[in-house]
Amino acid sequence: MKSDLATFIRDIPDFPKKGIIFKDITTLLMHPEALASSSAMFVKLAKGKGISKVAGIESRGFIFGGLMAHKLGAGFVPIRKPNKLPSEKISETYALEYGTDTIEIHTDAIVPGDRVLLHDDLLATGGTAAAAIKLIEKLGGEVVQISFLIELVFLNGRERLKGYDIQSLIKYDAE
Ligand code: AMP
To answer: Catalytic pick from 88, 97, 159, 175?
Structure first.
């Protein structure tokens, strides 16, 4: 089903702002077979690697992140937007095309020696994932794999995440 998965993604032009083609994954999530099949593919890629925690990036990274953690027998760690996490936390701020963004993680969510699978729905420039890697590594975790449902190959996010095991199920070579 791998090549078919792309047919479940809906393109929304000019969302959330003009010029962006938003890749809407809700049309895949609502389809039982597509959900089961993509979840099984993610688990196959990550199993046998001794993953102890799956870290998902808010908010769409929570969906497959949670499913994978359960199937891999690992814990789940949310990486969140500012001021959402209630306990002691560390932050990482990164540049966007215009302005900056910040993500946060609880300081006790990762312990030294944790083998971490980082997950988000989509890889674009790689800025968000690079910031998440910094948070995990600051806490002593090892990023064993980074998985995405979608990769926008033409934005070269992979280059920014060099040296890590990057996996994606659906690749777009051009806009
Ligand atoms: P980046 O940091 O540039 O790799 O952007 C990745 C983050 O932005 C992910 O959390 C995505 O959910 C979101 N994102 C970026 N571009 C798109 C897009 N075209 N469609 C949907 N989400 C996107």
So the answer is: 97
10 CA distance to ligand 1 centroid (A)? 14
Query: For residues 149 and 161, what is the distance between their CA atoms, to the nearest angstrom?
Result: 16
* Ramachandran region, residue 40 (left: φ > 0; alpha: ψ -120 to 50; beta: rest): alpha
Question: What pLDDT, on a 0 to 100 scale, did the predictor assign at position 3?
Answer: 53
CA of 122 to the centre of ligand 1 (A): 5
Q: Give the Cα separation of 16 and 146 in Å (integer).
A: 25
Residue 59: cis peptide before it, omega within 30 degrees of 0: yes
Tens digit of each residue's pLDDT (9 = 90 or more) over 42-89: 999 999 999 999 999 999 999 999 999 999 999 999 999 999 999 999
* Residue 97: predicted pLDDT: 80
Confidence of residue 173 (pLDDT cuts 50, 70, 90): very high
| Distance from C-alpha of 30 to C-alpha of 143, rounded to nearest angstrom | 30
Q: Is 66 in the pocket of ligand 1 (CB under 6 A)?
A: no
Q: Which of 60, 80, 92, 151 is catalytic?
A: 60
- Ligand 1 site, residue 21, Cβ cutoff 6 A: yes
**Do 38 and 150 form a contact (C-beta atoms < 8 A)?**
no
**Domains of the chain, earliest start first:** 49-172 (3.40.50.2020)
